[in-house]
Amino acid sequence: MRVLFAVLMLLSLAGCAGYQHGVKNPMIKASYDAADRLAAMAYPIIKVDQPVIVATFVQIDRLTTTTTFGRLMAEQVASRLLFQKYPIVELKLRGSVFVREGTGELLLSREVKDLSAAHNVQAVIVGTYALAGEKIFLNLKVVRPTDNRVLAAHDLAIEIDETTRALLMSDPS
Q1: Which among 102, 106, 108 has a CA at the least distance from the CA of 91?
Q2: Which of 6-15, 121-130, 163-172 has maximum average pLDDT?
Q3: What is the chain written as a DSSP string?
Q4: pLDDT (0 to 100) of residue 119
Q5: In the chain, where the domains are located
Q6: Contact between residue 98 and residue 106 where contact means Cβ atoms under 8 Å apart
């Protein structure tokens, strides 16, 4: 009886290891699903054991501005890729990247090649978003920095609810 109990406890703990908090939240689920799609589409060109950069997602009509929504979505995509064993280069710790307080990592095209070479980065994840009605439309891309070739892309739409509205209402910067 004790052996059966121990086996059941181990199985239940193993199930917990695969559980990820927050995946019931529509925004987190959408960002994780997008990261999964990008990784699947870019494989085998993008190798799991080579570094990736995830830039802050920006407003499509103002490519140098974002909101808390764009910063958070990029962070969630990075989290999911890290969960899938892609090494993520954290740009907030570098002084040479265009990081403005309250903005995030806005990669200027002239800096991408330098950063990529310095970190041996195989790909950069970039994203844009736009608002229309009660939806946020996002376009995410995996870009090879050596030649700016788009290796994968994914589009998604997220309902604007109380949470996303609050994240979008942050001061654009």
Answers
A1: 106
A2: 121-130
A3: -HHHHHHHHHHHHHHHHH--TTTTSHHHHHHHHHHHHHHHHHTTTS-TTS-EEEPPPEETTBTT---HHHHHHHHHHHHHHHHTT--B--GGG-SSS-EETTTEE---HHHHHHHHHHHT--EEEEEEEEEETTEEEEEEEEEETTTTEEEEEEEEEEE--HHHHHHHTSPP-
A4: 79
A5: 21-168
A6: yes
| Torsion 7-8-14-17 (CA) sign | negative
Q: pLDDT class for 43, splitting at 50, 70, 90?
A: very high
pTM, two decimals, is 0.79
Tell me which H or E stretch contains 28: helix 26-42
pLDDT level of residue 101 (50, 70, 90 thresholds): very low
Structure tokens at 131: 């608002």
Model confidence pLDDT, tens digit, residues 45-94: 999 999 999 998 999 998 888 899 999 999 999 999 999 999 999 877 65
Mean pLDDT in the chain? Answer: 81
CATH class of the domain at 21-168: alpha beta
Question: Nearest 5°: phi and psi at 44?
Answer: -95, 5
Residue pointed to by tokens 């309250």: 102
The two tokens of residue 173 are 């910067």
